[in-house]
Specification:
Layout lengths: L1 E13 L3 H10 L9 E10 L7 E3 L1 H10 L4 E4 L10 E15 L5 E12 L5 H8 L5 E13 L16 E2 L2 E2 L2 E14 L12 H31 L5 H9 L3 H19 L23
Parallel strand pairs: 3-10, 4-10
Antiparallel strand pairs: 1-2, 1-7, 2-6, 4-5, 5-6, 7-10, 8-9
Helix pairs in contact: 4-5, 4-6
Amino acid sequence: MTDICKAAAVKAIGKADQSDLALINLLSRRELSADEVYTFAVRLCDNDIDRDYERFEENTLEQLSQLFVGVSGVFDHEWSARGQAARIYRTQVVREESVRTADGRPYCYLKGWAYMVRTQANEALIAEIDGGIKREVSVGCSVERVVCSLCGQDLSDCPHEKGESYDGQLCHGILTGATDAYEWSFVAVPAQRKAGVIKSAKQLEQEARLGRRYLKGLRRELVRLAGIAEPDADHNLLVRVAGKLDEEEILGLTKLMRAKADKLLLPAVQLQYGPGEQSFESDEPFRI
């Protein structure tokens, strides 16, 4: 399971109509009137490649559409009841066929409608939304897998690196299988690179990223040495085999392949003693 956090945008709406009010009252503890609530629309996440070199699969957006109903909006991903500012009451996956993603696919995004109760305490926040000051949000959710766009394997196991191009194709991670929607948050700065990770999961994600890079490095070295030790071996086969091994197996095979490669690469002795000749022992480094 992977924790994901992405940037989005806010659009003010204002007063709820009767159909929206009915959905809002399904979430409230008492019947609210249209004058008591303020509503606005949020572009939560989309299927385009972002600055983390990741994108949501369209099916994942559909799954998140159900998970985000009833989810609270907070500030700067601070998970506290005091920070709850609004709540999603309706969602929809919007498709814009005339718009294309960075890699040429039809664009779609998850839209959410949120409400807050009009109080003296949140008058300033409502004014900031209306005035375009509070515009960016980011979402916190979990997905089952991050799949490589090039080979379809889990990105943590495949030989490709996000953000790198291979034969003209940009490698990116496809976020698949939504499992949970934690929150959506008003943020001061929209999605900086890696800034979208939820604070409570940030350190774990960094450590996992380092571990994935470490294993990728080990696998690349194994494939390199195996290609030297077994020059007739198919490179793609070596890559696939290395991708299925764990750390202990990789290290063991790397040691074996390095020994075989060293024997092939080390130069042979050019000067040898003939039959019946004895070696000359000396502290000098070299003598003919």
